Amino acid sequence: MDAFTELIGGFGTALTPTNLLYAFIGVLLGTAIGVLPGIGPAMTVALLLPLTRGLDVTGALIMFAGIYYGGMYGGSTTSILLNTPGESASVVTAVEGNKMARSGRAAQALATAAIGSFVAGTIATLLLALVAPTVADLAVEVSPADNFAIMLLAFIAVTSVLGSSRIRGLAALGIGLAIGLIGIDPTSGQQRLTFGIGELAEGIDVVVVAVGLFAVGEALWTAAHLRRKPIDVIPVGNPRMSRSDFQRSWKPWLRGTAIGFPFGAVPAGGAEIPTFLSYVTEKRLSKHKEEFGHGAIEGVAGPEATNNASAAGGLVPLLTLGIPTTATAAVMLAAIQSYGIEPGPQLFDNEPELVWGLIASLFIGNAVLLLLNLPLAPVWARLLRIPRSYLYAGILFFSSLGAYASNANTFDLFLLLAIGALGFMMRRYGLPILPAIIGVILGPFAEQELRQALQISNGAVSGLFDPMSVVVYAIVALIMLWPLVRRFVPRKVVPSVLEEATHEIEEAHHHHGLTDSVSVAGTTEARRRFDRAHDTEGDG
Amino acid sequence: MSSAAPGGATTEQGRSEYGVALFLAALGVLVIVLAVLIPESRIARGPLGPSTVPIVVGGLLVVVAGFLALDVARGGRGEPEGGEDVELTGSSDWRTVLMLAAAFVANALLIESVGWWFSGAVLFWGAAFALGSRHYVRDALIAFALSFGSFYLFALGLGVVLPPGILDGIL
């Protein structure tokens, strides 16, 4: 196989002492920041983006691989010990993980999460190495019309799938697209939405948008509703697993990998659906069904593996098509672009050393993650106790630092505050952040592809339709019309797996004595339920 | 389609939801108007000019605003984002938010004249104060440690020089 020789070359790039050091620092910083409450993986990557400015491309990407995995694992730690998923993908981990922690099995929960992430990450990265070059070869054939269709699919998918309110998802997308329009139109050289402000002519730096929406928005929003009582953190020793824990975990790890990777690799994927799917699967197959809802180790092992596998799978569309499917991937894309590199089909031909170095460093990052996190878990748990005033002051401090350092312009700081205010408003009124950030990053590319496609067809709209794009548009239509379609499909015949999953999750909450449940619409809803369940417990 | 937030949704909250729809509609109209005003370009290539996509995006915003207003009228409410440190029972604590914004603006105003070593520390100290920390001296020590530390980290480690301001030549 060609991929293997390339991969070995990649290890040659990644295994130099300096690059190994970058990977190590990346994992360490990624976990340390990602474990902090209130900081999800996407915000971790956005906040640490400026740190890679001084590095060369390869070094920066290698460090990013470490930050990526570190940030995700940090998020799982927080979910398990605090019952507070940093992003929707770890909602499910929190379900059983926190129950385990509460019943004194925090160490086992963390261990199965760490080892499961390692197993899934390694297998999924291997799959990535095998699949990506083929996809890239196929993607070269993809016309601008197809590309536009796929981007449209990505837009619709992030606004519709599992969002609690589609109209609010679309609103967020619209805001993102509008921000993405700001600047000089590359095709005509005309300024758009710049209001004659010179600083806006180049468009708004994606770092500023990402840090503003995620970090500043989050800090302001939390400050307005700060819980003044201390959070209760479950103390934890060194993660360890008994033989029976292993026996109950290894199958969920593998199944989780099998579920997560394909979902991540589809341009409309994301990690929410597969983690829910994994949870339901494990519950069905488990010999310890009665433990589900009270801390079943399978319920942590499966979804955690799924989460990591789908993250690796998400790199397939990211590297081969330039399409991010999660917020974290979107920020990664911005990071790669900031080096003047356009992810896409040509990337594997133009920058083989870089791509394979990155893939190799994903393996390394994964291994470092396991080595670091098993012994360091008690330290991470202590980080959870950082005073909230310092935590959010620190977030604002480092946000400003990052935004200023990228362009050395005070204007960016005011812009950051304005975008932070926008993020505040979006959180207040339930507009999801992900569609906005995808809109900002992908919007300009979608426009470019659309205009190119029409240029090729000499303005004929029929140029937008060829066999592939028609299929993609059909999927888009299906997603958009799903609420309508579902009415005509008898429920018993096609049981919606997702509905079942949300039902399962809902059931799990009933053990908390939550009685006011109406219907679970999506992950945010599930998460909110969680927080409330948590509150009731804290008060009682 | 809509996510009703059970409990906590007061009539006041309901009315301010229309504000979001209004904001979206205004943004949409602004985008459309500015797109229409883009002058004819001489170097334009292809059938689609620079204003087509903005008009579509603006249109999307206006349409979405309409549907959102409809959703709100039917009793749909945006679901405020929860989180580990978030308590959604009370109303927003605007005082804290304004103090944070003030600390943020102070940093932006001071960074180039006085320097990051000071403005960054002001930002951290002010934000910690706004969030309820009352260890004035300890906060100040941490703040200056962070600002000086980040200055040297960026200068030596990354080759990015943050503004030294009045300490130019000393740092």
List keywords for this structure.
heterodimer; A: 540 residues; mainly alpha; two-stranded antiparallel ribbon; 21 helices; B: 171 residues; 2 domains; 5 helices; 0% strand; flat; disordered N terminus
Series of H and E elements of chain A: HHHHHHHEEHHHHHHHHHHHHHH
Number of domains of chain B: 2
The beta-strand count of chain A equals 2
Please tell me what the overall shape of chain B is: flat
**Structural classification of chain B:** mainly alpha
Structural class of chain A: mainly alpha
Largest sheet of chain A: 2 strands, antiparallel
Query: Spans of chain B of 5+ residues with little confidence (pLDDT < 50)?
Result: 1-10
Q: What is Rg of chain A?
A: 22 Å
Instruction: Please trace the helix and strand order of chain B, writing H or E for each element.
Output: HHHHH
* Oligomeric form: heterodimer
Strand order of the largest sheet of chain A: 1-2
Biggest β-sheet of chain B: count, sense, barrel? none
| Overall average pLDDT of chain B | 84
Number of helices of chain A: 21
| Share of helical residues of chain B | 55-70%
- Counting structural domains of chain A, the number is 1
State which percent range the strand residues of chain A make up: under 5%
Helical stretch count of chain B?
5
- Arithmetic mean of pLDDT of chain A: 81
